[in-house]
């Protein structure tokens, strides 16, 4: 009996000794990098994402439960744990991948970050939609809004016209009932002669001018883009969205475009890279079954076939372009050349990719010489002139640098 009692006590002791979530800066930092590497694609701290919002999880669950769940959630679910099975069903049986490589301490650091970290993101996340609206506002008014505003203005103008028309007819009726001179009556009842207006020279001139201007603009735009594919936006075999992956999920470009920092080509990811996640993620959160678009990835992998992505950017063979030189050495952001890819549902060619475009940037752009021994000598030689070293000064305008 005493034995059982002491066991119970031990049990209670062990429970009471449940480790505390530390709020030390060190633990939060360690947790943050673990979180970014393993959890960020599915979890946010204060908002539901592919998985639940995590802040406060150490209040709703035992620490030991969390440690088990993070290391192997399926094991906990299959053991019949009530909370886990309920959560699993709530998230449409989305499987959270196992993290067997995480130690108990790692999970404790993760919890430090989850409970105390990322406070700056907590503020805008409060109202969810508010946060999104603020985000949109700070990045300028999107063009769809401008169209809507224009449409509203047109409707308002039409309403004003109708009201004015009504006022005119009411006034006319009223005045007709008054005892007035014949001349005044005639003036009141005169009709605007629309036929006359339509036939008038001024009207014809204005309309012709507008039509000519529109045609000319289209023609000029067309001429300038002969052979230039700017804006080219082909339909892809899978409805892959950069907005979703690179924007909403914040997956780094390099995760998929593995070549950008090491070589000439950026690389289009193979289906295996997609499978790192889509082994687990079979559909967008909240939808049942396997998404038909994601099914196409499974088919490609099963049949060992590549996905036939349509190339968007295409320099002619006579020109040589190297990504690592620009991204790694030059320190240029992808968006400088490719535009806001992380906002595009479907990729479109943002820049003209003409020779003039390359040269123009080489004339204007300073090279990053700091911390690059390769340039030390050049910088010395260049020291007499006061201008910063530009790409043109290292041969960026030489034909042979870009042409074979
Ligand atoms: C592929 C997406 C995915 C990844 C990556 C992921 N999770 Fe999850 N997580 C989920 C989903 C979905 C759930 C809801 C339960 C379920 O469906 O299994 C969940 C549930 C949880 C829960 C339980 C929350 C609660 O309210 O009880 C915790 C804790 C958790 N995850 C922590 C983590 C941590 C820590 C990491 C990184 C080491 C991580 N998750 C990585 C998808 C993911
Ligand atoms: C999850 C994987 C993934 C991520 C992350 C990703 N991409 Fe892509 N990217 C692709 C795939 C797949 C294609 C080919 C299909 C297409 O064009 O949409 C592609 C195509 C492109 C293209 C057009 C290539 C061509 O055909 O000329 C550009 C440019 C590009 N990505 C830039 C970026 C940038 C910049 C980022 C980061 C902001 C990024 N990508 C993040 C997977 C990814
Ligand atoms: C790092 C993780 C990750 C990688 C890598 C990844 N995805 Fe995704 N993808 C997701 C997540 C998470 C979702 C679901 C988003 C949601 O719940 O809204 C998703 C959604 C999708 C969807 C939307 C499905 C639908 O029905 O709307 C498509 C299509 C897709 N991914 C294709 C791809 C392709 C193709 C690749 C490889 C080039 C890829 N993904 C790589 C995480 C990833
Ligand atoms: C200085 C301008 C510039 C920058 C910066 C740049 N790109 Fe490119 N990118 C290009 C050009 C030009 C092409 C067309 C290359 C060709 O056809 O040979 C291209 C092509 C691509 C392609 C198609 C596949 C390929 O390699 O030809 C992808 C994917 C891509 N870029 C992704 C990226 C990503 C991701 C980044 C940032 C990490 C980036 N680019 C930065 C100019 C740039
Ligand atoms: C947004 C600016 C920008 C654009 C656009 C750009 N470049 Fe560059 N380029 C740079 C910078 C910066 C460097 C210098 C990198 C370094 O420090 O070596 C560079 C270097 C180069 C070099 C090496 C020059 C040398 O003397 O070592 C070549 C070749 C080159 N670019 C080709 C191209 C081609 C081809 C295009 C057009 C398809 C292009 N670049 C478009 C910024 C640009
Ligand atoms: C910074 C890179 C760069 C440099 C330097 C450069 N070019 Fe080009 N050039 C290109 C690119 C990219 C194209 C292809 C784009 C296009 O067709 O508009 C091109 C296209 C051409 C074409 C073919 C035009 C056509 O209509 O097909 C000729 C000819 C040419 N270059 C000659 C030269 C000569 C001569 C020099 C030296 C004075 C030179 N280039 C220097 C990048 C460069």
From TrEMBL:
Q: Which InterPro entries match?
A: Cyt_c-like_dom (IPR009056), Cyt_c-like_dom_sf (IPR036909), Multihaem_cyt_sf (IPR036280)
Q: Which UniProt keywords apply?
A: Heme, Iron, Membrane, Metal-binding, Signal, Transmembrane, Transmembrane helix
Asked whether the keyword Iron is assigned, the reply is: yes
The organism's superkingdom is given as Bacteria
Entry keyword Ion transport = no
Note one Pfam family from the annotation: Cytochrom_C
The Cytochrome c domain, residue ranges: 26-118
* Membrane-spanning intervals of the chain: 145-171, 202-220
Q: Which residues form the signal peptide?
A: 1-16
PANTHER family linked to this entry = CYTOCHROME C7-LIKE DOMAIN-CONTAINING PROTEIN, LIPOPROTEIN CYTOCHROME C
State what protein this is by name: Cytochrome c
Look up and give the organism this protein is from: Echinicola rosea
Lineage per the UniProt record = Bacteria, Pseudomonadati, Bacteroidota, Cytophagia, Cytophagales
Q: Which gene encodes it?
A: actA
């Amino acid at each position: 009996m005493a034995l059982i009692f002491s066991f119970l006590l031990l049990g209670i002791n062990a429970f009471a000794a449940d480790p505390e979530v530390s709020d030390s800066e060190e633990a939060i930092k360690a947790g943050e990098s673990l979180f970014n590497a393993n959890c960020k694609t599915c979890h946010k701290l204060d908002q539901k994402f592919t998985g639940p919002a995590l802040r406060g999880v150490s209040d709703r669950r035992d620490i030991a439960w969390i440690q088990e769940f993070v290391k192997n959630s399926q094991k906990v679910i299959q053991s019949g744990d009530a909370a886990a099975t309920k959560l699993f069903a709530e998230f449409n049986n989305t499987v959270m991948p196992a993290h067997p490589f995480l130690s108990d301490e790692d999970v404790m650091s993760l919890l430090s970050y989850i409970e105390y970290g990322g406070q700056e993101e907590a503020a805008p996340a409060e109202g969810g939609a508010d946060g999104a609206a603020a985000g949109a506002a700070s990045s300028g008014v999107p063009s769809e809004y401008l169209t809507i505003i224009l449409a509203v203005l047109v409707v308002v103008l039409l309403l004003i016209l109708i009201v004015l028309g009504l006022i005119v007819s009411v006034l006319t009726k009223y005045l007709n009932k008054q005892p007035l001179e014949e001349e005044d009556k005639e003036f009141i009842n005169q009709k605007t002669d629309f036929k006359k207006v339509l036939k008038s020279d001024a009207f014809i001139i204005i309309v012709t001018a507008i039509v000519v201007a529109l045609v000319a603009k289209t023609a000029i735009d067309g001429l300038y883009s002969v052979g230039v594919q700017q804006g080219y936006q082909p339909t892809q075999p899978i409805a892959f969205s950069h907005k979703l992956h690179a924007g909403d999920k914040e997956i780094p470009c390099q995760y998929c475009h593995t070549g950008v920092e090491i070589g000439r080509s950026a690389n289009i990811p193979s289906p295996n890279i997609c499978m790192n996640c889509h082994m687990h993620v079979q559909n967008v959160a909240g939808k049942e079954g396997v998404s038909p678009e994601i099914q196409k990835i499974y088919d490609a992998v099963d049949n060992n076939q590549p996905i036939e992505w349509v190339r968007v950017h295409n320099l002619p063979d006579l020109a040589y372009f190297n990504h690592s030189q620009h991204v790694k050495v030059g320190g240029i952001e992808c968006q400088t050349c490719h535009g806001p890819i992380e906002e595009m549902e479907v990729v479109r060619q943002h820049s003209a990719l003409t020779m003039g475009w390359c040269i123009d940037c080489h004339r204007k752009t300073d090279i990053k010489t700091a911390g690059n021994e390769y340039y030390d000598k050049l910088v010395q030689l260049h020291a007499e002139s006061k201008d910063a070293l530009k790409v043109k000064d290292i041969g960026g305008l030489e034909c042979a640098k870009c042409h074979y």
